[in-house]
Amino acid sequence: MEEKTTGNIIMAALSTLTTPQISSLTTTVSALFHLHRRRLTSLLSSHTLFSLSLHHLHSLSLHQKSLLIARHLLQILSHLSHFFHPKATGLPPYATTTIINHRDLDSVLLLLLLCELHQHDPESLKKLSPEKWRDTLSGYVSATILTISGIGFSNSETLMKYIEVVTRCRKFVEVMGCGGDGKEGREVAASVAAVVALPSVEVEEGGKECVICKEEMREGRDVCELPCEHRFHWMCILPWLTKRNTCPCCRHRLPTDDVYGEIERQWAVLVKIGDGCY
Asked: What's the CATH number where 199 sits?
């Protein structure tokens, strides 16, 4: 059986999208790559901006660098995950988690570029002082500008570049921090936006119990319904969601403001969709 690598899983998820969805995703990804290219060009063209970004990177701990790349990964990954959200209209509820300011975007693009150049030529930067790195990076970017920007790419080439970027960022996050505590599947709270958006429904037939308090949900009473359609007393589910973002019955995950938890949640959705294609 083919190993389910990051690339395999994303390709399998992409195969379930319609032609209009693929077109929409490609347009969005292309625009994102062009933005990254513009920021990277500005960064390498300005000695001041480059120095500030490099200084910012030097001030960050390993965990903080991992978090920076994780937020970047989440922003990129969310463009695809959005199509598998039950109500994929407008911004998804986790949109605020993916917002990155210009300073952080410049820093993460510089960090990824440094890592990429190091992998391509491990000795190129060791021979130079950090003040000379900008010239070396500019030369490397000039030689690979089409790959970095996606200019002239077909839809399939743009998506392949998308998969490459997601794979690289995900690998960096796993190697550099693994969420900062080395533990996968840790409990994280549901995002406030996701909780506020939960609907209140009236119990039409009594007899069913709330699995949290084990008491009956009486007919005519308003209760909370999660996206998985399991229902709970509001007074029971709210404290639960302040500690964990999973349904008490089926472990369905709600969006979270925790960056690593949200990456894990979105990745689990893609894995589930991709599993149906193997």
From this structure: 3.30.40.10
